[in-house]
Amino acid sequence: MGTLDWLVVVGYFFVMVAIGLWSRGRIRNIADFFTADGRMPWWLSGISHHMSGYSAVMFVAFASEAYRLGLTVYVWWALTIGIGVGIGAFLFAPRWNRLRSKHGVASPLEYLAQRYNVPTQQVMAYAGALLKVVDIAAKWAAVAILLRGFAGVPITWGIVLIGLVTMVYSVLGGLWADALTDFGQFVIQAAAGFAMFFAVAGRLGWGFPATIWDRLPDSHSDPLAGPYTSTFLMALFLIKTLEYNGGMWNLAQRYMAAPSGFAAKRSALLSAALWLVWPLVLFLPMWAAPLIVPGLEGAQAENAYIEMGKEMLPAGMVGLVLAGFFSHTMAMVSSDANVIAAVVNRDMLPHLWKKVRTFSAENQLLLARVTTFSFIGLSMVIAIASGGQGFVLKVVVDLVAATMGPIAIPLMLGLLPWFRRVGSTAAIASVVGGLGLWAFLYVEQMNKAAWVTKGVLVSWPLLLSLILYLAIGFLKKEPSSERDVLLDSLGSDEPEQEKVKA
Q1: Could you give the CA distance from residue 236 to residue 315 in angstroms, rounded to a whole number?
Q2: 76: CB partners within 8 A, 6+ apart
Q3: What is the pLDDT, as a whole number, of residue 363?
Q4: How high is the mean pLDDT of the chain?
Q5: What is the distance between the alpha carbons of residues 231 and 54, in angstroms, rounded to a whole number?
Q6: Which residue, among 16, 63, 19, 46, has the nearest Cα to 327 in the 3D structure?
Q7: Do residues 403 and 236 make contact, with C-beta atoms less than 8 angstroms apart?
């Protein structure tokens, strides 16, 4: 990287910190910090939802799979998310918003205490919080690998540098800072993505999206290839539908921050459209990469995007692309840190430390900032300890994708009126059973059991969790008039005669 590239990166960091400082003035209370108090425009909510859904993992782990296997990574990742978010625009997005507007909910898990009971809420809070901190550690490792590849910065220092910048604007500005930086990052990342796309077009010709396939192995044009089977695809589609409509808690916040349920629906449709189109721009250069930087085998494939950048981009553009990498990771980490702070402060601490319930508005806001700081710091420590290489894809697919389903099923299906008689027994059994089966399969995989494929590891825990939720819910119905009132209130934006306190 040259001087101009470094100036671009430093300028990017400066803008992110400035946004955090500016957003601090908009934060008056805990509702502003966690949900923007429902004042976020639908288009900003939609762009923020999209940007918060992926990180530099795409340019390391997923770029590696695109380099090795071709088209399949778009099919099982971006396409499933785009379709899933489109479905969720009608099923889930408006309901998340009405939890805030009608019941004052500030955390995605806050409603679970009434929907099921407090023990169910606590099981899901602890399981999800532990998953999130490891997930974000993988994101830090991914962006640090990119920084090392482009600029020779050691992984530890890369994590510290990017983590500290993210920590500043997340702690100061809350969800407003997250959303505004998401928008800025969307613009920067678009410039970086098109820069790489045009560079490849200049090398291979403007028709390269159609012409490269004849020069690549036949399997690179297959929608499913390698370990990614139809079973894996179907399981991941259900997981991503649940995850990106609120099972990934920070994405539920984007819907909650919109002014109304109708606005949240528009946000989701915008995000769905971006998911279907934008990853194509990002992946096309990676599908062409074997023709430009051939011979990257095994773990070296994780450096495919780095090698492409060095080969194709002029001075200044490398820094812009690197800023684009940062933008993805910082968008996801800051939003995850905000929602984890919401869950800890609203759902976990009040049951561990009774005094929290009597905190003043000022002290609640201070506690939220301390929790955000602590979460980011812990995830950075885990990322540094991991060493980075080979850690990213393992965590994202084998851990996050495989365990998200059991955690998300009771949370997401609990919003829908069709499952109103499913109670806490089914919910807890669903989470514990699914995670227990995943733990068993993961140990078997570590012991080199050939039958534990990626499809098995991802689909079996999800399937068991879903079966337990539906079967126990059907056999042991737990009706509740209070729950009925809650669920009925989420069906429209019309004001209720009597609000139910969540």
Answers
A1: 39
A2: 224, 228, 232, 233, 236
A3: 78
A4: 80
A5: 23
A6: 16
A7: no
Exposed, middle or buried, 226 (CB in 10 Å: 0-12/13-18/19+)? middle
Q: Report H helices in 293-420.
A: 304-312, 317-343, 349-352, 361-386, 391-393, 402-413
Please give the structure tokens belonging to residue 291: 């023709």
pLDDT of 331 reads 64
Between helix 249-257 and helix 93-103 the angle, nearest 10°, is: 60
- Beta-carbon contacts of 341 under 8 Å, excluding residues fewer than 6 positions away, are 33, 34, 368, 369, 371, 372, 375
At 187, list the tokens: 């613009």
Q: How far apart are the first and last CA of the chain?
A: 52
User: How many whole angstroms separate alpha carbon 17 and alpha carbon 19?
Assistant: 5
When pLDDT is cut at 50, 70 and 90, the band that residue 501 belongs to is very low
Regarding predicted confidence, which is higher, 214 or 107? Answer: 214
How confident is the model over 85-102, as pLDDT tens digits? Answer: 999 999 999 999 999 889
What is the C-alpha separation between 420 and 392, in angstroms, rounded? 38
Query: Domain limits of the chain?
Result: 3-388
Give the position of tokens 């939720």. 469
DSSP 303: G
Three-state DSSP at 54 gives coil
- Whether CATH 1.20.1730.10 fits 3-388: yes
**What share of the chain has pLDDT > 90, as a percent?**
21
Q: How many CB atoms lie within 10 A of CB 218?
A: 10
AA letter at 307: E
Provide φ and ψ at 423, rounded to 5°. -110, -160
> Quick one: tokens of 100?
């805030």
Whether the CB-CB separation of 144 and 383 falls below 8 Å is answered with: yes
CA–CA gap between residue 468 and residue 479 (Å, rounded):
18
d(CA 77, CA 228): 11
The DSSP secondary structure of 391-455, one letter per residue, reads HHHIIIIIIIIHHHHHHHHHHHHTTSGGGTT--HHHHHHHHHHHHHHHHHHHHHHHTT-TT--HH
Give the span between the Cα atoms of 426 and 120, in whole angstroms: 10
Q: State how far the Cα of 360 lies from the Cα of 355, in Å rounded to an integer.
A: 11
Angle, helix 155-204 to helix 3-24, in steps of 10 degrees: 120
Instruction: At 300, give phi and psi (nearest 5°).
Output: -65, -25
d(CA 159, CA 143): 8
Q: What is the pLDDT of residue 90?
A: 95
With beta carbons less than 8 A apart as the criterion, state whether 343 and 129 touch. yes
**Which pair of structure tokens corresponds to residue 365?**
């806001």
Degrees (nearest 5) of the Cα angle 401, 407, 410? 135
